[in-house]
Design brief:
Length: 279
């Protein structure tokens, strides 16, 4: 594959970093457009994605260091040691911190973030494919099997191109969630919980085509974590469905029969809507 797209000697443009940047930019665009559609503060999108990126990298590095039994701060600036579940936990904590402290309603904002994370994850996996960083699967004689002789972790034997599988699954699940987002707007939190469920399903399935050490019978550590994400997502959805559903946003309830109501600015209406959504 192509770990380095352009080489300037000591500095270069790497395929993994390029696709990671593409994933972040795409997520910002998706979150921002949806925040704007729902009348929330769209500028929060960049802060959310930045928090996810910083929290994800720190979480992945800390988890990797705990597995290795030592912490090397120089690894914070390398592409090594990006453990998925450590990054997932760190990214979630970073996003939660930003969203909870923002003036936007928490659960509806998280419903917007969830599908965008899955979309960005799928884009990021293209970077893993281009870099040939060892995320591929076992040897295969299927027509679409690929070798990575020039990869970061090279192999001359055709193997399962697992990053392609993950990208296709991620984009499929994003499409499902995105098509259903309006349907569940009156039940905040459901789409966010469903994002956890589908992320767990995606990674659990993908692990069958990855050369990852088994830690419990035939299961990998990532599969165990995926089960936790799946069960946690289901529990979160059930909890959200027991909460009162949001009433429809009626402009008339902001005084449409008065001169003040007729001249109300959109921002005032949005504030009224947010107060109802925080219930």
């Amino acid at each position: 594959m192509y770990p380095t797209i352009v080489d300037f000697g000591p500095v270069g443009i790497h395929s993994f970093g390029l696709m990671l940047a593409t994933a972040f930019i795409t997520a910002v665009f998706v979150i921002q457009s949806e925040l704007k559609r729902r009348g929330f503060i769209p500028e929060l999108a960049s802060s959310i994605v930045m928090a996810a990126a910083i929290g994800g990298v720190i979480g992945a590095k800390i988890y990797s260091a705990l597995l290795d039994g030592q912490i090397d701060f120089r690894e914070l600036f390398s592409t090594a040691g990006l453990v998925w579940y450590g990054g997932f936990i760190g990214g979630c904590l970073g996003v939660a911190f930003v969203v909870i402290r923002s003036p936007n309603p928490t659960l509806p904002t998280l419903d917007i973030v969830g599908p965008a994370v899955i979309l960005g994850y799928g884009i990021g996996r293209i970077g893993c494919l281009l870099a040939g960083d060892g995320d591929y699967g076992p040897p295969s004689d299927l027509p679409w099997a690929m070798a990575f002789p020039n990869g970061t972790v090279p192999t001359d034997v055709p193997v399962h191109p697992t990053p392609i599988y993950e990208t296709l699954m991620s984009w499929t699940f994003f499409g499902i969630l995105w098509s259903q987002r309006r349907k569940f707007e009156t039940t905040p939190g459901v789409i966010f919980g469903a994002s956890f469920v589908l992320l767990g399903v995606e990674r659990f399935i993908a692990e069958f085509w990855r050369i990852t050490p088994r830690v419990l019978g035939w299961m990998t550590a990532a599969q165990l974590f995926s089960i936790v994400a799946f069960v946690g997502g289901i529990a979160f959805i059930l909890w959200m469905r027991t909460r009162p559903r949001l009433v429809a946003d009626v402009v008339g309830d902001i005084g449409s029969e008065t001169d003040e109501g007729k001249g109300a600015e959109p921002r005032q209406r949005n504030r009224a809507r947010k107060r109802r959504q925080r219930r």
